[in-house]
Amino acid sequence: MFKAVINAETLRDAIDSVSSLVDEVKFSISENGLELKAVDPANVAMVSLKIGSDAFEYFKADQGEIGVDLVRLSDVLSMADRGENVQLELDEESHKLKIGVGSLSYTLSLIDPTAIRKEPRIPDLDLPAHVTLPGGELRRAVKAAEKVSDHVILGVSDEGFYMEAKGDIDSLKLKIPSTELLGMKPGEARSLFSLDYLQDMSKSISKAGEVTLEMGIDYPLRVTFKLGQSVDINYLLAPRIEQE
Amino acid sequence: MFKAVINAETLRDAIDSVSSLVDEVKFSISENGLELKAVDPANVAMVSLKIGSDAFEYFKADQGEIGVDLVRLSDVLSMADRGENVQLELDEESHKLKIGVGSLSYTLSLIDPTAIRKEPRIPDLDLPAHVTLPGGELRRAVKAAEKVSDHVILGVSDEGFYMEAKGDIDSLKLKIPSTELLGMKPGEARSLFSLDYLQDMSKSISKAGEVTLEMGIDYPLRVTFKLGQSVDINYLLAPRIEQE
Amino acid sequence: MFKAVINAETLRDAIDSVSSLVDEVKFSISENGLELKAVDPANVAMVSLKIGSDAFEYFKADQGEIGVDLVRLSDVLSMADRGENVQLELDEESHKLKIGVGSLSYTLSLIDPTAIRKEPRIPDLDLPAHVTLPGGELRRAVKAAEKVSDHVILGVSDEGFYMEAKGDIDSLKLKIPSTELLGMKPGEARSLFSLDYLQDMSKSISKAGEVTLEMGIDYPLRVTFKLGQSVDINYLLAPRIEQE
């Protein structure tokens, strides 16, 4: 059993943070809310999303699992006006999710959860350094780096957080001193990442007041942020090999 | 003789309600205003438009007929700023329409009315049921239905107005109870229509505070609405055959 | 030595007035500011731009010359938020321009000035007639003319300024009487110009409160306007041959 009411924009923002990496996902439903873990088709990025039951206006659910095409779900949610709620109700017999928006009632066919790629085991990395900054600032840096290159170095020095992008002709540096960061744990950290992935992630990240980046030397990047009070998102992005 | 002044946006909105279905039309001019009847190239939809002389700031005309390319006329009107008036004046000798917008003076070549497709005879159908709702609500329903299918069922039941769209995977229902409609005459009504046409029509309909839909069982849909006080628009849309 | 701070939008607007005609330019740097003269690849239009030192928040420079790819520079400036300043600093050894926007630091490779097309000698024409009008009004006229033709006649009569565009089917006239112009010197003037060039120019011109057009009979058009107090732009556009 699953029946819930939620602000359409809250749900859509949560879903968009995942759908930029993977289309079909398996939601775990429990009395605590909705959860999912997924990995992108190229195995470069992992995402975990938790929509706590507090994020809902109404939430009632037994333990369960549903397979959802996020692109279609996001498309349905776009029918809602700004500020409007959506009603969600699982029809267990027909394996369909009923989505009500105002006087519209949409029936979304679910995907057999066994047909969806297995959930990744998210590795429990101990990353030596981390920085916290406004989500909008990270997005701006990513957009600036894209003008120069396809890849970007993220790192932490004693002074603060830095980003470097080198193109064939031009280059770009970003330095945010520790005094201007919202939080920082200094440590050895410098890794190269694909801007394609960072750009997809940064659309959602830019909606967060603050985002924490955990890093090491040629280690994956862990990105942690919240949308509102009760939506928690984690990304883990594999590094690329830096060529001298 | 034809000489008139009208708000550019009023005239453009009126014209756009027709140009989504047909490009070249024959306007009948009389002291009461402008009128046209036209049918789309596929003979699926008819439109009749009346721009009453009251819709004009100034209007002086003898009986007459002019052939107009609506796409070019709409393009010229787009040169006007918001709230600006346009001057229209027929040059009978050269068969041109002079259109003044501010200090710009545009000369639009007219089309020989005999070269334009004959006006349709709009059938005088007695449709058993009708509902009245805000134009914006109809547009929203049409846009939602397009996410699911190419066709949509419109119907009237004892409870109110309904719409159903069935796609290969998902489906959508809309129900507006009679208490939430602006007006209703219950009756036997359920027909299938092409969403392509409804979408074209709904752009203009969405500008109307209210729109009336008249329907029957597998009968054409008649759509009636006003833009402002003095522009009257009627659509008649042929049904499609519903396949079980 | 060159070191300066300027509002990003001011610099971008100045650069866009040139980059619509030519990509790579040679800036002359002096204590008075930046200057350039350039001609478009087809030798139809010339542009001269002066950014006075007063346009800068901070300006310190020795005499010098730098070659710049305006498309890349404009792209970098687009990273700045509305109202934000950019820091410019020339690294003479590495032949690079360092551009700072907030915590971002961009390194733009310069072009060898000798590899850039020689500066044009801008002819000192004595044009018999001129009119002054709001920049936005010229842009509107140009956009209207494009709906009709690829070319446009600009002229001055005793009554004021006029524009004529003749298409295969329709035609357009604009007449602004001298009483509605911001300034006028009557004289013999009527020439045909390419709308492609006028359209490129009119984007920048529309940002100017007033623009002065100097004209003759089948003579080039000289366009003079300011952006803000300290940015001066001049265009010279060759006429086309009018075919009867």
What are its keywords?
homotrimer, 244 residues, alpha+beta, DNA Polymerase III, Chain A, domain 2, Proliferating Cell Nuclear Antigen, five-stranded antiparallel sheet, 4 helices, 18% helix, elongated
Ordered list of secondary-structure elements with their pairings:
The structure is a homotrimer of 244-residue chains.
Chain A lengths: L1 E6 H12 L4 E7 L2 E7 L5 E8 L5 E4 L2 E6 H8 L7 E7 L4 E6 L2 E6 L19 E5 L1 H12 L4 E6 L3 E7 L4 E7 L5 E3 L3 E6 H11 L5 E5 L5 E7 L3 E7 L7
Antiparallel strand pairs in A: 1-5, 1-7, 2-3, 2-6, 3-4, 4-18, 7-8, 8-9, 10-14, 10-16, 11-12, 11-15, 12-13, 16-17, 17-18
Ends apart, CA distance between termini of chain A = 56 Å
The largest inter-chain interface, given as chain pair and residues per side, is: A-B, 12 and 15 residues
The CATH architecture of the largest domain in chain A can be given as Roll
Total beta strands of chain A: 18
Q: Write down the oligomeric state.
A: homotrimer
Radius of gyration of chain A, taken over Cα atoms and rounded to an integer in Å: 19 Å
Main structural class of chain A: alpha+beta
Q: What is the fold named in CATH at topology level of the largest domain in chain A?
A: DNA Polymerase III, Chain A, domain 2
**Strand residues, percent of chain A:** over 45%
Overall helicity of chain A: 10-25%
What are the segments of chain A in which pLDDT stays under 50 over at least 5 consecutive residues? none
State the CATH class of the largest domain in chain A: Alpha Beta
Round the mean pLDDT of chain A to the nearest integer and report it.
94
GO biological process, one term (chains A, B, C): regulation of DNA replication
Keywords (chains A, B, C): DNA replication, DNA-binding
Subunit structure (chains A, B, C): Homotrimer. The subunits circularize to form a toroid; DNA passes through its center. Replication factor C (RFC) is required to load the toroid on the DNA.
Pfam families (chains A, B, C): PCNA_C, PCNA_N
